[in-house]
Amino acid sequence: MRFLGAVLVFLSCPAWAGQQPATGAPPPAAPQSAAEVDQALRERVTKFFQAHVDGRFRLSEQYVAEDTKDVFFAMEKPRYQKFKLASITYSEDHTRATVVVDCERVVSTPFGLMNFNMPQQTSWRLENGQWFWYLDPTLVRTPFDGMIRAEAPVKPPPGPAGPIRRPKAQEVLDRINSAVLCDRSEVRLTAQAPTAEVVLTNTLPGAVSLKIGARQAPWLEAALDRQELAPRGAARLRLRYRPQAAAPAPVALMVRVEPTGQVIPIQVLFGPAE
C-alpha cells in the first residue's frame, strides 16, 4: 500500500508527469493571416459606414479609437445614402490601413438638393486584434470634405472640417458653373479638315447630363458620344462640316449641363471649299 501511494504521488506531480502547472491565463491566439486581417478590416469598415447610412451614430462609436472619441463626439456626422469600399492600403506590417470609401450624400446647392459621390479617406489601426477608425494628425480636411496630406503634422481639428473658412454661396455657384471643363472653346473646320472633336470632362462628385443647343447650321453636324457623365467622366462632342462654296459665318454652339444649368459656348469657324 505504501508503494502504491508513492506511485500515485509521483504521477500526480506536474513536473514528473510532463505537465506544466496551470497559470489561469488563456493560450496566446494564433497570428492571423493577411487574408483574415483584410476580412476583419472590411467587416469593421462596413459596419462603421452602415451606421452612418442608418443614422445610428451611437453604433459607430464602438469602431472609433479611444484617443479619437472626443473628436468623434464633437464632429458633425453626415448621413450617407449609400457607400462602397473603394480601396485599402496597408502599412506598418498590416497594423495600419488607409481606407477610401465612396459615399453618396445629398447636398444642398443653389439649384436644389443634389446627390453627390464624395470619396472619404479614412485611417484605421489594429489594436488588441480589432480595427479602429482614428483621426490621422497628418491629414487635414478641405472645404469640400476631402482629405489632403499636410506637410507637417497638425493637431486634430475640433470637428470634421476643422477651423476652415466655409465657401460663400457665390464661390459655390462659380465652381458649379465651371465644373464641366471643355478642352477648347474654338474650333476651325475646313475642306481639308472637316471633322474635329471637343472633350468635355465632369469634375463634380455627382453625375450630370449634357445637351446641345438647338441652334445649328445645315452645313454643320454636332453630336455627343454620350449624354450622361459620371463623376470624372468625359464625353466627346463630334463635329462634321460639309464645305460650302463660300465660307459660312461662324456658329456658336451651346452645350447645356443639367441640373447645374452651366452653359458651355464653343465657337466653330469655317473655311471655304477649294
Helices and strands, with pairings:
Blueprint: H1 2-12, H2 14-17, H3 34-54, H4 57-60, H5 69-74, E1 82-91, E2 96-109, E3 112-127, E4 130-134, E5 139-141, E6 147-149, H6 169-176, E7 180-182, E8 186-189, E9 195-202, E10 208-212, E11 220-224, E12 228-229, E13 234-241, E14 251-258, E15 263-270
Parallel strand pairs: 8-15
Antiparallel strand pairs: 1-2, 2-3, 3-4, 5-6, 7-9, 9-13, 10-12, 10-14, 11-13, 14-15
Features:
disordered N terminus; 2 domains; 15 strands; 274 residues; Immunoglobulin-like; Nuclear Transport Factor 2, Chain: A; 6 helices; 37% strand; alpha+beta
Question: Could you walk me through the main structural features you see in this protein, from its secondary elements to its overall organization?
Answer:
It contains 6 helices and 15 strands. Strand 1 and strand 2 form a beta hairpin. It has 2 domains: 33-174, Nuclear Transport Factor 2, Chain: A, CATH 3.10.450.50; 177-270, Immunoglobulin-like (Sandwich). A 5-stranded mixed sheet has the order 8-15-14-10-12, with no helix packed on it. Residues 1-22 and 140-165 have low confidence and may be disordered. Helix content is 20%, strand content 37%. By secondary structure, the protein is α+β, with helices and mostly antiparallel strands. It starts with a helix and ends with a strand.
pLDDT < 50 stretches? 1-22, 140-165
* Gross morphology: elongated
Strand count: 15
Q: Identify the CATH architecture of the largest domain.
A: Roll
Named CATH topology of the largest domain: Nuclear Transport Factor 2, Chain: A
Instruction: Please write the CATH class name of the largest domain.
Output: Alpha Beta
What is the alpha-carbon Rg in Å?
31 Å
Number of helices: 6
What structural class do you assign from the helix and strand content? alpha+beta
Strand content: 35-45%
**What string, H for helix and E for strand, traces the elements in order?**
HHHHHEEEEEEHEEEEEEEEE
Strand neighbour order, sheet with most strands: 8-15-14-10-12
